[in-house]
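Workshop exercise sheet. Pairs work together: one partner reads the sequence aloud, the other fills in the structure field after running the prediction. Swap roles for the next sheet.
Pair: D.N. / O.F.
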Amino acid sequence: MSIELSRNYARDLDERDELASFRAQFINIDPAMVYMDGNSLGRLPAQTPQRVEQIVREEWGEKLIRSWGINWFNAPIQIGEKIAQLIGAGTGQVAVSDSTTVNLYKLAMSALMLKPERKKIVTDTLNFPSDLYMLQGCSHVLGGKHHIQMLEPADGLRVDTQRVLDAIDDDTALVTLSHVVFKSGAMYDAKTISEYAHQKGALVLWDLSHSVGSVPVELDEWGADFAVGCTYKYLNGGPGAPAFLYVRRDLQSQAISPIWGWYGQRSPFSFELDYSPAEGIQRFLTGTPPVFSLLSIEPGVDLLLEAGIQRLRKKSIQLTTYMIDLFDASLADMGFSLGTPRDANLRGSHVSLRHPDGYRINRALIEEMNTIPDFREPDNIRLGMTPLYTSFQDVWESVDRIKRVLSEKRNLHFAETRLKIT
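Structure field:
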């Protein structure tokens, strides 16, 4: 075995890791467990339980309703300003509100209403299904007049950039894609696509759920119109934490959210009977936010800001490259194929390994090998590498345990029938 394939080599990489100290900033109840699913649900930051207790005991228990005026009411904008620093957005363009799907609906409908004469929406079949359902719902609400063109990838990883550009024409109202594809981890050239869409008079909406906190995002530089993203993956905000949305500053006075609520009203406490939208990004807020989960986002975001997105990206590339090197050496001849681009410039922070028996292999990893990736149909085992807390030894150990599952035939212990959650 070459030194690069040994556990000692992974240990040496960890000793040289400039972000290694952040690992201790997260709760880790079982050090023997290898957690490779931070791209689906991030670990619990060590500061979050203390923050939640403070919200419960001090802000709710002691201050009661006064806390709305102290820090609760403005939290969607204040936390949005912190997230803005991770996605290349200037001030006044990001807010935390609702779920990713609700935010997608609000922004997609806003875009389509801004382009009423255009009837085409461009997306791809690799987009997260909820995004596609939402687009279908928008079309239905608007009378079924819009054609949704779902581009098919030739390689199963992502649609070639030129094919995306070729699909954008003078009838295109909206181009909406996931910047990093949820199955393959492939990453789109967002700047080129955004600029060309504008040349054709179309608007662009990016889903950053698998991007924010793991890869550099430059929304202002790209010229993006709209963006959304979740906060419970790389931002470590907790299960079901509210999502964020971005609206380019010069569009805010033109775009109107289709969901009108008191939080988006220009003067919420005047309790006027007719709706008048607030100025700026606040007009895209809706109802009262879930305070506990909203404020729980902040500790994870603060850690990412401390680490810095460039250092996070550097380590992400190192981790995913190491995973692919180990795959080539240990798994490629065991029926696996790589479901993620080899070019680091074209991938995010998770690696997808494809295998005909991927579902049962994934079950065996979780239930017998104390290793937690996740599975995405039809054959993808996703291994998410979160730069703040994933170690190189985690990568080595996960590949070694996958190899053991097959060599020991542990996958055969499980039925092919899918559980409800995979």
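Discussion prompt: Residues 309-330 form the longest helix (22 residues). What would you look at next?
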